Amino acid sequence: MDTKFDLEKISQNIVYVKPVVTADLPTEVQDQVGDLDQIYAVHNASGEQLALVADRKLAFHLAREHKMEPVTLH
């Protein structure tokens, strides 16, 4: 295989999706989450949190809507 990829360009569009236990969040965020025990955070390659969403499917949808490539972070 001799296909060339611009890895630097690809990495600029990657976002990481990870589960977050709501009990670990600040109280003001917990108040907004309701009765969910877990939500999902979306982070850019620099580690900056971009969003908190109710479920994994929504996190991936949100990323793709903004032309980003979501990957799961454990």
TrEMBL record:
InterPro entries: DUF1150. It comes from the Bacteria. Pfam families: DUF1150. This is DUF1150 domain-containing protein. It comes from Yoonia litorea.
